[in-house]
Amino acid sequence: MRNKDSWVHIKSDSDFSIHNIPFGIFSTGNKSPRIGIAIGDEIVDLVEVWELGLFKPLSIPKEVFENQFLNDFIALGKEKTNRVRVLIQRELLNTNSLLREKPTLLVKQESVMMYMPVFVRDYTDFYSSIEHATNVGKMFRDPENALLPNWKHIPVGYHGRASSIVVSGTNIHRPMGQILLPDSKNPVYSKSKKIDFELEMGYIIGKNTSLGDTIKIDEAEEYIFGKVLFNDWSARDVQKWEYIPLGPFLSKNFASSISPWVVTMEALEPFRVTGPEQTPEVLPYLKYKGEKNYDIKLQVSLKPQNKEEKIISNSNFKYMYWNMAQQISHHTMNGCNLSVGDIMGSGTISGKSPDSYGSMLELTWSGQRPLQLDEGVQRTFVEDHDTIIIKGYCEKEGVRIGFGVVNTKLLPSIA
User: Fold this and answer.
1) Active site residues
2) Which of 91, 114, 137 is the last residue in one of the domains?
3) Which of 317, 331, 349, 360 could form a disulfide with 296, with the two C-beta atoms 3.0–4.6 Å apart?
4) Same domain, 108 and 136
5) Do 370 and 390 share a domain, yes or no?
6) Do 284 and 394 reside in the same domain of the chain?
7) Are residues 65 and 137 in the same domain?
8) Are residues 212 and 339 in the same domain?
9) Residue 391 and residue 16: Cα distance in Å, rounded?
10) Where are the beta strands (DSSP E) in 70-198?
């Protein structure tokens, strides 16, 4: 099965190959938001597929597809959602498909409006890259004891603000906050001067649990529908002042940005890899079998206003110390309930080499080593009118599956 086997033209380097078939929410000028599937440079309108009768054997109501969020579709369960995915994949390979007879069924991606793919009731952000946690510990604590004693025993996390998660292309504003200036004992109220991106991936919860339920690690992956790119914006100067004793608050909840297309776990199956060795040995409820990490290449670029974008980081999701199954098992060990559409953030994804660090904090070592973007253009943190662009894809044996892009421009403070 190759891209060229489809009757839809798909470039060889397209993120949205015939192997991918991701879901998202889009609208055109004369139609309301609805569910679509990305293929090449186009989108398959699933409402129009329903009207052709191709989903009749699945007994899915039309309103599931005529929806501004994927939540109701995801709640159908993996058996049905994957059947939809496979059906569309098969029809895109079938030169006699009924889809070819309806010219309005395919729309160009460049001509549509994309929306938040899911309604997010709850959002949890983890801290699961040992390289990132070590770098931060060296900068802010004791370089000889960078990791706190609990870090290798639990997937550290905190609950974020779901309402401020926005889809790619949504501009955000520099936040205000309390900041402790150097050589000062008292904070000032000021706009943040150290705005940072965090290279993350998010995953979408696909099944509800009840309060009191726990999810065993062997069952955890059944609760993951798919993945997105995720930029968890941070105000580092606000964070440094506020994070003790309870952790991040206003330094994190002003905005997080996600990519609009949700890539299913079924599509990512061929890209499983072995994760890092975990020492000391974890507690029994966190012990897992098999390959739980994924080889997903990630890239971050920074684009100053009216200038070319510059690649500043190349990383990979496979570096994560704590995997998604462990995160879910730990998240629910106390009976915390999950809901369809909840987002879990991986935490900043950093590799071992400086060019693979997942934040400006690390790339510039808290501003001590400015990044040279162009002649006369440097950055220590993100400046007003800069755009951060994150991309990600998997590639193996001629099969490419990508996530598209999450790009966000930082605008000046409005306070």
Assistant:
1) 132
2) 114
3) 317
4) no
5) yes
6) yes
7) no
8) yes
9) 13
10) 106-108, 113-114, 123-126, 157-159, 165-167, 172-173, 176-179, 188-191, 195-196
Give the residue from 13, 17, 21 showing the smallest Cα distance to 3: 17
Helix, coil or strand: residue 114? strand
The model's pTM is: 0.97
Q: What is the CATH number of the domain that holds 69?
A: 2.30.30.230
| CATH number of the domain within which 361 lies | 3.90.850.10
* Contact between residue 35 and residue 29 where contact means Cβ atoms under 8 Å apart: no
Q: How many structural domains is the chain composed of?
A: 2
How far is 71 from 109, CA to CA, in rounded Å? 22
Pair 27, 142 in one domain: no
| CA 354 – CA 119 distance, rounded (Å) | 36
Cβ atoms 339, 109 nearer than 8 A: no
- Write out the chain's pLDDT in tens, 415 residues: 788 799 999 999 999 999 999 999 999 988 999 999 999 999 999 999 999 999 999 999 999 999 999 999 999 999 999 999 999 999 999 999 999 988 889 999 999 999 999 999 999 999 999 999 999 999 988 888 899 999 999 999 999 999 999 999 999 999 999 999 999 999 999 999 999 999 999 999 999 999 999 999 999 999 999 999 999 999 999 999 999 898 899 999 999 999 999 999 999 999 999 999 999 999 999 999 999 999 999 999 999 999 999 999 999 999 999 999 999 999 999 999 999 999 999 999 999 999 999 999 999 999 999 999 988 899 999 999 999 999 999 999 999 999 999 999 999 999 7
Given the structure tokens 């054997």, which residue do they identify? 57
Give me the domain span that covers residue 69: 3-114
Last residue of a domain, one of 57, 81, 114: 114
